[in-house]
């Protein structure tokens, strides 16, 4: 089990006319982080910096942070410091800066990015979660009612589905939910990708 955020949180911190918009989001992959950062830049064309940090996985060994042109370690590191201070993972925090005309100095920047990140975290709820695995299953149309019954009775999240030729689904399963996997394996004709060992 680990701590993460339930949903997006947004907060604004102002310092000497500069505006720092902190945004925290649940995040499961580096690709997801990249897509969100691109969207944030597109939605804030007048900003001067989008600094960020993320941490992934229960081991918390997969992390990255960026100053995005601010002085070295004045933005990304303080943001990442807040992820660590709240003991979070599977999370991305970005801080969008609009320059107000007055230089803040490295100390001022560290404080501003730290506060924007902290306030964003405090603007959402922290929850317990656990590692998950994503699998793709394929099966015949005749098995669809059985598969859907098992999914409805569990905490499984359907990421995408394709019923065009033969039914396929990508599903996200908590690692601890071996009972659900066992019930799926008991349905004849389901193909797992990647294969699930018995």
CATH H-level homologous superfamily name of the largest domain: Impact, N-terminal domain
Largest sheet: 5 strands, antiparallel
Query: In which order are the strands of the major sheet placed?
Result: 2-3-6-4-5
Q: What class do helices, strands and sheet pairing give?
A: alpha+beta
How many whole angstroms does the radius of gyration measure? 21 Å
Oligomeric state: single chain
Helix content: 25-40%
Order of helices and strands: EEEHEEHEHEEHEEHE
Tell me, briefly, the overall form.
elongated
Number of helices: 5
CATH architecture name of the largest domain: 2-Layer Sandwich
Please count the beta strands (DSSP E, at least 2 residues each): 11
> Which stretches of 5+ consecutive residues score pLDDT under 50?
none
CATH class of the largest domain: Alpha Beta
Mean pLDDT: 93
What is the CATH topology assignment of the largest domain? Ribosomal Protein S5, domain 2
Number of domains: 2
Residue share in β-strands: 25-35%
Gap between N and C termini, in Å? 24 Å
Structure description:
The structure is a single chain. The protein is of the alpha+beta class. It folds into 2 domains: 2-128, Impact, N-terminal domain (Ribosomal Protein S5, domain 2); 131-193, Alpha-Beta Plaits (2-Layer Sandwich), CATH 3.30.70. It contains 5 helices and 11 strands. The chain has helices at residues 30-43, 76-85, 105-122, 144-152, 178-185, and strands at residues 2-5, 9-15, 18-26, 49-56, 62-66, 91-98, 126-129, 132-138, 157-162, 168-174, 191-193. Strands 2-3-6-4-5 form a 5-stranded antiparallel sheet, with helices on both faces. α2 packs parallel to α3 (105-122).
């Amino acid at each position: 089990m680990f701590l993460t955020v339930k949903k997006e949180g947004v907060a604004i911190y102002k310092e000497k006319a500069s505006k720092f918009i902190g945004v925290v989001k649940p995040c499961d992959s580096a690709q997801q982080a990249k897509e969100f950062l691109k969207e944030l830049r597109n939605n804030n064309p007048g900003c001067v910096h989008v600094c960020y940090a993320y941490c992934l996985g229960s081991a918390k060994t997969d992390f990255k942070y960026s100053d995005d042109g601010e002085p070295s370690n004045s933005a990304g590191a303080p943001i990442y410091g807040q992820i660590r201070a709240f003991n979070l993972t599977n999370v991305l925090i970005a801080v969008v800066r609009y320059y107000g005309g007055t230089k803040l100095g490295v100390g001022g920047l560290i404080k501003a990015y730290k506060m924007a990140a902290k306030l964003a975290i405090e603007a959402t709820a922290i929850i317990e979660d656990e590692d998950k695995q994503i699998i793709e299953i394929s099966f015949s149309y005749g098995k669809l009612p059985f598969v859907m019954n098992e999914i409805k009775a569990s905490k499984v999240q359907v990421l995408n589905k394709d019923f065009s030729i033969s039914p396929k689904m990508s599903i996200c399963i908590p690692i601890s939910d071996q009972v659900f996997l066992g019930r799926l394996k008991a349905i004849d004709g389901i193909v797992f990708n990647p294969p699930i060992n018995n």
